[in-house]
Amino acid sequence: MRVLAIRGRNLASLNGDFEVDFEAEPLSDAGIFAITGPTGAGKSTLLDAMCLALFDAVPRLGAAPARARIETVQGDELSAGDPRAVLRHGCGEGFAELDFVGRDGERYRARWTVQRARQKTDGRMQATRHSLTRLGDGEILGGTKTETLAEIHRLVGLSAEQFRRAVLLAQGDFEAFIKADDNERAQLLERLTGSHIYASLGRAAHEKAATLRAQQQAIMGRIEAQNGLDDEARRTAEEQQSAAKDAADRTSATLGELSKAVGWETERAILADKVTACESAAATANAAREEAIPRHEALRLRKAAFALAGDWTAIQEAATLAHKAEQNAVLRQGELDQARERATQTAADESQAIASVQVETDRVAVQSPEIEEARTLDRKLSETRASLDGISDTRATRAQALSECQKVEQVAGSSWSKAIATRDDHASWLAQNAGFASLATQQTELAAELVEIAAVNLKLSQLSGSVDGAEASKIAANISWEAAKAAEERTAAAATSARNILDEAKASAPSEVEFSVVLEKRDRLGALSPLLVDWKHHEAQVGACRDLLARLRSNFGEAKVEREDLVTRHSEVNSSLPILRAQLQEARRAGELAEAASGEAAMQLRATLEEGQACPVCGATEHALSALDSLLGMQLREQRDRIADLEASSTSETAEEAALAARIQSTDKSINGLELDIESQATAMAVANEKAQAAFAVLSEKCSLTGLDPAEPDFEITLESALATLDGQRSTMTEARTAVTIAQVADEKARSDWEESRRASGVAAQTLRDIEQELSSLLERKSHITETRDRLAKSIDVRFSGTADWRQLADPIGWLDEQAGAWRTYFADHSKIVEAIPGLERAVADARAETAAAMVRFDEIESQAKAWEQEQILVTNARSRLLGGDTVESVVAQNEAVLSQSRQALETAQTAAALGRENQAASAARKEAADQEAKRVVQGHLDRQGRFHARLAELAIEEEAVADAAREGQTAIDGEVEALAAIDRAFNNAAAVLAQRQEDLIRHDQTDPPALSGDALAQAVSEAKQADETAQKALQDAQFVLRRDDEVRTQTSKLRAELERERAAARVWLALDELIGDATGARFRRFAQGLTLDRLLAHANSRLTDLKPRYELQRAPSGDMLIQVIDHDMAGEIRGVHNLSGGERFLVSLALALGLAEMSTGRGLKIESLFIDEGFGALDGASLGQALSVLEHLHATGRRVGVISHVEEIKERIPVKIEVTPVARGCSELTVVSG
Fold it and tell me: What keywords does the record list, in alphabetical order (predicted)?
């Protein structure tokens, strides 16, 4: 890689655009060049620009704390390592750009850009952008920022850390490397070379090997835990299983026979209970039918009363109409009375309006002379006002002239009085402050001395504060040094104690094998709990299925009985329904005949019959028409009642038949569904039973590995106890292992604290020496400044003599300016006033003469005006007594308006009177019509009421019964009919069901009864269940022994094969652990660092031969990280690197940095640009020459070297320089110079 150009804008102290072109003269021909400038000017910013353009990072920010935050003036909060902080303060945007030659020989341009929102200086900081362009064809490489950085890494061949080691030589880091102790040197070498991965590899190898060993130990423990049967024991177990199976089959058969007997007895008890219940229901239904007999007679009377309900309703409506007619007549009488009152009132209003018009006419005639007199006085008053207006302008002009003269006189007198008072005041002030005259003449010199002494006092105050701070710092530093020494002693003791505790914890902790065995046992026992829960769950499901199946079978039997009852009732209804329909048809024919006899035509024919005349139908001469009408009416009503009863019964029977058919169909569906449910539930119970047996088999299989038997009564308690014991062991071992970990952490922290306290003690001692030296310098400066202050104070005391104590003044210079300016102002004003007083006296006299003349002229016009004003007052008073002071026009208009209103009111009153008379006549006519209508309606109501009461007497029915029937309506009668029919049906149904239940009980008793019953049967069932449970348990135990032995035989062979596979797979890892593994990774890290240090020293010695042939570096045989120096000028004497001088250490660190650069650019990668930052100030002339010669020799190998330094001798020895020159505070510019 070769750097071609560096460009940028607004980065750190480099303001605006800058560019360094290494292909332009004089840099293109320079093998070595210097980057110079004072400290803080911005030299390192050039290196930052390269790293930003290539890697979006700044090397010197890499050491910043990861969580540290900085806040900019604009309010942005950035992390301490954020490269955007390089943007110059007060700038809206900036960039860094680098042209370089990549590994493929092509030229590229990498650009890093940062800006604030809208490129405003107060905008929020935005995300950075990155781009890469191939300069040959202008193609932009990469897309996103991540892709661009990856492409740059491919072209450069270095990561950011490798670039820092290979291009930006780490001479300063190797200076620290030489000075550090073993531990710090190992950490620095790991950071410089990137060898931290070796410690991670060592730890990973150790952890992997430990895991594999634990797995092997666990398998071995499982093999040892197996216990199998021999062949003889196996045969015995098989014979026991066969015998147990035969016994279980016999007990199951016996229990099945007894279960059938229990079922027969249970079913008979159920049938007997049903017979008892049906007998009770039949008795209840019969009692209800007996109680309903009076209700049939009541129903007949209600039907008769309902036949008159229409007449009763018509009477009620007629009564309402009669009442409304009477109310209307009363209302019309009220309207007539009101019309009469309104007619009387309007006639009176008409008379009053006529009188009012006459009164107003007389009043206007009387007022006419007064109106004429008022018109005369109005004309005279107008003439007087015209005369006053004629002289008012002259009067105002002379009054204004008089006022102006008086003002001028007043102003002149006031100015003269003020001038006299001011002259006297100024003369008095000048006499009292005569001493200020000398201050005014010496003001300039005195002000300069005051400024100087203020600056001296400020410096002295600052020095006093610095002295106080230094003394306090000295005390604090001394305390810190003593505390650091004490801390060093405490941490040393704590480190020893921590190591002892760690050793004790390791001795008390269990081994990995012991801990793994306990965990394996706990896992095996812990796996049994969910299996036990699963088995119990399936057993509960079997019980639930058994109970549900019993309920379904019971419901099935009840549904069959209910269907038989419904079929019986349905047959009864189907038998009675045709008979009922025939009776209804016959009743309807009889009703039609009765309707014909009572029809309108028959009634008209009977109306034409006369006594003694032959009937045209039958020829009879005697006609009992009244009795005939009564008889026909009664027959018609009876036929109608019979038809209604038969229709209701037919409807009820039809509805019941449909309902019974629907219920039979629904019951059939229920029976079919129950049959399916019983079959489904029997299958579900069988499945649940199989699952329960399978779950028990799995539980037994797993228990065989732990030595527990799930068939034992206390199995759960035994399992919980074993788990608690293993949990206690695991907790104890875990606590012991945790104690080791805690002790290791405490040991490492104690050793770290000890090292830190040693370093802090040295730093505290050096700090104390530095503070003592600074305090001595401050005291010397304070003494010199105190002498200067005393000399100035004496001079100022002389100049202020007799005026004021300048030391007590808050602002002596301000006070001096104020007093000197006041004295000069008073003196100048006093002189001007003395000169102006004679002129002011003349102005006062002239103003007084002008005022007197103006007064005479004003008095003349004022007397004329007063005469006219008196005349105006007399006329005004006379006019005010006429017409109440109102104008003639307003009075005339008012009179005309009053007369007009009176005449309009008269017309309105006349119209209202005529209308009142018309309304009275109309109201009288409406009253007469309402009276006649009320009489007609009342008479009609009385006639209808009489006929209704006659009919009630004829039928012997109370009016209240008819009223109740009308209110209740036909629905109530139909409801009662249905209720009585329901009572009859309930009795019939109860009797039929009782007969069916009695028949079912008899049929059941005729079947074969069991030999045992009652308590004897219960005792036999209990004994059979106990025998069956015992036989089943014996069978399960025998099966469990065989299954466990089968598992042991299979599992042992599998476990040994698995152990061999584990050993084969772990062989490589265990060997790797022996070579490089340990818990901290230190073994492999030390080995890798040793190789790295050997390579580094080899490369560094090749460069040190050119820089300082006298010395050669080598590793010390007594330590991994120790470096020693061979002094060839002293016959190969061995020296430590700490014995080298400052210049010699710089040459050694430079050789190490160059060696690291060569190591970092291996694998065919060529670096053609190198930069070295500072360190040359420690070299003498000869050593500096040697160093520069080596760097120039690097140019001969095709490399360009840049030296960053502020040392003057470097500037003189290197002709081509990039100068970074400050031009303002925090602002620098770049120039390339030669020579």
Answer: Exonuclease, Hydrolase, Nuclease
Report which secondary-structure segment, H or E, holds 506: helix 443-508
- Residue 9 binned pLDDT confidence (cut-offs 50, 70, 90): very high
DSSP string for residues in 1196-1214 = HTT-EEEEE---HHHHHH-
Structure tokens at 248: 């279980």
CATH of the domain at 208: 3.40.50
Structure tokens at 1076: 């490089």
CATH of the domain at 128: 3.40.50.300
Same domain, 738 and 794: yes
Q: Taking all residues of the chain, what is their mean pLDDT, rounded to a whole number?
A: 78
Q: Is residue 337 part of a domain?
A: no
593-to-492, 589, 646 alpha-carbon distances in Å: 137, 7, 18
State the pLDDT at residue 1177: 60
The residues, ordered by sequence, that sit 6+ positions from 1064 with a Cβ below 8 Å of its Cβ are: none
Strands 14-21 and 2-11: antiparallel
For the cut 80, the answer to whether the pLDDT of residue 961 exceeds it is no
Task: State whether 92 and 204 are in the same domain.
Answer: no
Residue 322 falls within a domain, yes or no?
A: no
State how far the Cα of 1227 lies from the Cα of 1231, in Å rounded to an integer. 14
Classified as helix, coil or strand, 1232 is strand
Q: Would residue 1117 count as lying in a domain?
A: yes
CB 1078 within 8 A of CB 1153: no
What is the DSSP pairing of strand 1200-1204 with strand 1169-1173? parallel
Contact 108, 51 (CB under 8 A): no
* Alpha carbon distance 521, 259 (integer Å): 46
CB 132 within 8 A of CB 152: yes
pLDDT at 1011 over 80: no
Count other C-beta atoms under 10 Å from residue 590's C-beta. Answer: 14
Q: At what angle do helices 812-880 and 309-432 cross, to 10 degrees?
A: 120
The answer on 555 and 481 residing in a single domain is no
Residue 1127 pairs with which residues in a beta bridge? Answer: 1111, 1133
Write the CATH number for 509.
1.10.287.620
Question: What is the C-alpha R_g of the chain?
Answer: 67
pLDDT category at 1140 given cuts 50, 70, 90 is confident
**What pLDDT does 493 receive?**
84
Residues 651 and 755 in one domain: no
Same domain assignment for residues 541 and 643? yes
Which of the residue ranges 803-812, 1034-1043, 1049-1058, 1215-1224 has the most confident prediction, judged by mean pLDDT? 1215-1224
What's 202's DSSP letter? H
The DSSP symbol for 87 reads B
Question: What tokens does 82 get?
Answer: 């954020």
508 and 591 together in one domain: no
Give the residue with greater pLDDT, 705 vs 873: 873
Confidence of residue 80 (pLDDT cuts 50, 70, 90): low
pLDDT in tens, 101-138: 998 889 999 999 999 888 887 788 888 999 999 998 98
Residue with tokens 């038949």, as numbered in its chain: 657
In the sheet with 1111-1115, reading across from the earlier edge strand, the strands are 1111-1115, 1123-1127, 1133-1136
Q: How many domains does one find in the chain?
A: 4
| Token pair listed for 95 | 């960039």
| 1017/1010 Cα distance (integer angstroms) | 9
Q: Confirm if 270 and 1004 have CB atoms less than 8 A apart.
A: no
The Cα 83–Cα 327 span in angstroms is: 106
80 and 101 housed in the same domain:
yes
Q: Which two tokens stand for residue 1232?
A: 């390339």
Q: By the 8 A CB rule, do 347 and 913 touch?
A: yes
Would residue 921 count as lying in a domain? no
First vs last C-alpha separation in the chain: 28
- The phi, psi pair for 109, rounded to 5°, reads -130, 120
**How far is 977 from 300, CA to CA, in rounded Å?**
10
Alpha carbons 1014 and 1018: distance in angstroms, whole number: 6
